[in-house]
Amino acid sequence: MAASKDPRPCSISDTLAVVGEKYSLLVLREVCLGNRRFDQLVRNIGAPRDILAARLKRLVEAGILTKRMYSERPQRFEYRPTAAGLELEPVLMTLMAWGDRHLRKDGDRPMVIEHACGNELIPVVTCSACGGEVRHGNQTPHPQAPGWTISGPAAA
After folding, report:
1. What does each of the 156 residues of the chain score in pLDDT, given as a tens digit?
2. Contact by Cβ (8 Å): 38, 48
3. Which residues contact 5 (CB under 8 A, 6 or more apart)?
């Protein structure tokens, strides 16, 4: 088998192709906060209207959001997260926590999320089997894509 000239098959890459653009993640932030109407999204995100419309269309097509009419005259729509969209909310919380730690040197955070327990949410990724915290160095990757090893394409 000849070495592949294609990039490594990767679910991260596939996910980024759908939600990896700045405004897409900010749309998800807003709909998860309960802001679901186009004018709210434009105001809170700051995206140009045409770009926001394109991102919303893509997120609906990808099954991350649903589009629901709330007014017939004039026709107006709101956007709600699907189950797949809601599964991305912990990813947003983890990105926010990373930004708070590494980009907000003054400690001035724009938002704090309170968990249902009443405490501030500090997201942690854990193993579903043992409950241990996932950290660099306590995991072992096993490539499943044919012809790929950890270091790259398998030699011919």
Report:
1. 445 578 999 999 999 999 999 899 999 999 999 999 999 999 999 999 999 999 999 999 999 999 999 999 999 999 999 999 999 999 999 999 999 999 988 878 999 999 999 999 999 999 999 999 999 999 999 999 999 999 999 876
2. no
3. none
pTM of structure: 0.86
Best CA proximity match to 113, nearest among 89, 132, 88: 89
Exposed / middle / buried, residue 61 (Cβ in 10 Å: 0-12, 13-18, 19+): exposed
* Distant-in-sequence contacts of 123-128, Cβ < 8 A, 24+ apart: 123/90, 123/93, 123/94, 123/97, 125/94
Domains of the chain: 10-87 (1.10.10.10), 90-156 (no CATH)
DSSP state of 115: P
